Sequence to fold (506 residues):
Amino acid sequence: MKIVLVKPPRFENSGTIGQPPTPPLGLAYIAGALEVDGHDLTVIDAVALAPRKYIPFKPFGEFIEGHETLVTRGISFEEAIARIPSDTQLLGVHCMFSMNWIADRYFLHLIRKKMPGIVIVAGGEHVSGSPDICLLSSDLDVIVTGEGEETIVELVKAVEKNTALDEISGIVFKKDGKIVTTSPRKRKRNLEEIPRPAWHLFSVDTYNENSLSWSATSHKSIPILATRGCPYTCTFCSSPSMWGTRYFMRSPEDVLDEMQQLKSRYKIENFDFYDLTAIISRDWIIRFCKLLVESNMNITWQLPAGTRTEVIDKEVARWLYHSGCKNLVYAPESGSHKMLEEIHKKVNISKMLKSIRDAKSENLNVTLNMILGLPNERHIDIFKTLWFYIKASGIGVDSIAQSNFHPYSGSELFNQLTKDGKINPNLDEHYLEMVYIDTNSRTPIYNDYVSRNWYHLYVYLTYATFYVSNFVFRPHRIIKLIKNVVNSTYESRFEKHLGEYFRKVI
Fold:
């Protein structure tokens, strides 16, 4: 069957300095599954085709009023559509992020207008979290929810044979003007049976040449997964609706084998592990690190999404460092015990600080992932986070990656805020707000206890508290930071974002 997979242009505010676009790991896995099944496959990555091209977003020829700074990144919608072969039978679209939905939906409209008979399928976190809304408001025919490799293969066979879709687990589709949701697909337990990502169909080099990776390293990088799912149920996270709460691991040997193949084929020097929760088993991580050391691969690897702390002590930290993991990201999210309990973040702050001390004693560069602006957060909770920043800075934490809260589709907080009437996922304004999440002045606020003006102040105060205390405790770091930013030899995402900001304004 003739199939085209598309990563649409990225939707941005022209002033953004947030997380850059990265190679689409999920789409590469889907491509791998379809290729193994023998299909005629084409991939169109609109971002990789022009990663530094920004086009003013004018749906139907006009700016959206009040949103004149919005742009798309990559080739234009029309250029992307022109690359779709006329004999394409099924189009798979990558719909990962809610903040991209307005642009994605317009892109789908243009595709349907030009190719009315094509079957359009989407997958990813956003459409998995709100499948009914996405189907009813767009030109999509089918949404693949959750883990998609087996589902897309079955779906393609059904479309090819023109058979009913009702018996395919893990999809939501339109039928006779109604929405049909089939039974959830059972998670794949043996991850080693899943075909590996078909990176040869993507432009990995383009992402690296433009420094588009999740981590701060300047080395040639590629994303990878060692595990799938997460056993925890944080209320701000869409993982339970996307993956469920079952957690499965590949064997350390299988992960190492993939890394060796990627290094050999693409000259990869760094691996970004996109796992939701990478380090849970002490035996697994030590075994993996020992294999890396024994392999003499001479690579680095990162956990940019953050990890938990329960098994990270001096011994584990030592193995992490010697195996090439020089940067470690912890994800406490808040310094307030009350807020941690409220968002079901099963973290003990005292134990985390102990783990951080152990990591720093083994020379790891440590970053903290934090969220500001959670619903029900009070002033006192923010001050507890400020105090946590000072303590973390005192024991050697190198940087913070702080984000403003926004509700992920399908998360518990998203559902609660929708129920309370604080967001309306049927309105475009909800998705447009998300594009400004890192601009501070236009960041949406979902809190009844701290005003927008106070939040604006706290954003600056939290950063100032951490970095001023950091430089007071370790004055040499300010010189190191300036040197790294000037020379683009980043050691943290904060340094990378700072460097990108100065390059935009200079």
Remarks:
- The chain has 19 helices and 18 strands.
- The chain has a mean pLDDT of 92.
- The first strand starts at residue 2 and ends at 7.
- The first helix runs from residue 25 to 36.
